[in-house]
Fold this sequence. Notes:
Helix content is 32%, strand content 19%. It is α/β, with parallel strands linked by helices. Strands 2-12-10-6-7-8 form a 6-stranded mixed beta sheet.
Amino acid sequence: MRVYKKTLLSMMLATTILFGSACGNGTSNVNEGSTTEMESSTATESKTETIDYDSIIAQLEDTDSPSFADFNSITMDGKVVDESIIKEKKLTMVNVWATFCGYCIDEMPHLNELNQEYADQGFQVIGAITDVLNSNGTVIDSQMDLAKEIVAKTGVEYPTLLPTNDLIRMLLGGVSSVPATIFVDSDGNLVGDGYLGAKSKADWEKIIQEKLKEVQS
C-alpha cells in the first residue's frame, strides 16, 4: 500500500524531517554575503549566457494554493516550468540547497549520479536553491554567478528551481536548514518522510529504492 501525504509542505518540514548533517538559516533569500571556496574563482571564470531572470519572474502568475500538483517556477537556466515537470516521473526527489552550505555542495555530485542511474525507473532529482534573490524578489547577480559555478563544478545536470513566490509558499518557507529533501509522486503528493541534512550516496540509494517500491505498489 502506498504511504502518501498531501503537499502540506511547511507542516511536513516542521514536523516529520529526519535529521542529518545540515547548515542553519537555509531559508534566507537575502544572503548577499554568502561565500564558499569557489567564490574566489568566480570573477576569473568566463560568464555564462545572460538571462533576464527578473523579467521572467515578474511575468509568472502566482498560484492561489501552490503545491507540487499546481505551481509555476523558473529554473536556473531560465526555463519556465510548472507541475508538468513532476508528472514526467514516478518519483521526484526535491533537494533544497544554498550556496553557503558545504554539506549541500558535497552531496550534489552523488545526487547527479543517482539522477542518471535511476532515470530508467521513473526517478528524477530537482534542486531548489534558497539564496539567490533579494527580499524584493530580484536576482542577486553575484549569488547567481556563484550558484551557477557550484552547479558546473559539481557536475549537476538536473534542473534547479529558483525561489519564486510559489516555491517559497509551498516549500521553502517551511525549511529552516539545508540541505532539506522531500520526495513526491507524479501527482505531486508527498511520499513518506522528508529529510534534513546530507547523506551518503549509499544511504540515498536505499531510500530511493524504498520509495520507488511505494509508488509502484
